[in-house]
Amino acid sequence: MKRLFGILLAAGCMFAVSCNKTDDGAPALDITKAGLEFTADGGQGTIEFKGGATPATAVSNQEWLHVGSITATDVSVTADPNMDLLSRSALVTITAGGVKKSTIVSQTGIIFTLGKTAVNFYAMGGDDTTVLFNTRLNSLVPACA
Q: Which helix (H) or strand (E) holds 71?
């Protein structure tokens, strides 16, 4: 009977130690919805988290990504339009009760697409060719006669 009591006591101690707290006694903080990806147009998104003490704070390490409202379970972020060809990323750090967790937010660059896969130009001239392209860049393509 003493052995059974000892086993139950050990299990109870393990259960008490494994509660939702970090090693230093602060409540655990977990990011449950991360990996936000924005198009070049920008927009709004939400990073979800659980645990941690309230109130929580959040900061972005890039000027183009703005932290908005923060609730007990989520952080609202807004991405400015990306007028560059290259993609970019930002790090959002959520702090609650002295515990910090970070997640990466990414945004694509301007997508440049052509309406044709190939255009041939001949030295002797030929028919006019129209190539449709789609981009957010201001573009000027000179035509030489």
A: none
pLDDT digits (tens, 9 = 90+) for 11-22: 554 444 444 444
Residue that the structure tokens 């044709």 belong to: 116
SS (H, E, C) 99-126: EEEEEEEEECCCCCEECCCCCCCCCCCC
Q: How far apart are CA 132 and CA 115, in angstroms?
A: 5
Which distant-in-sequence residues (6+ apart) come within 8 Å of 130 by Cβ?
none
H or E segment and range at residue 137 = none
For residues 40 and 112, the answer to whether their CB atoms sit within 8 Å is: no
pLDDT tens, residue by residue, 60-83:
999 999 999 999 899 999 999 999
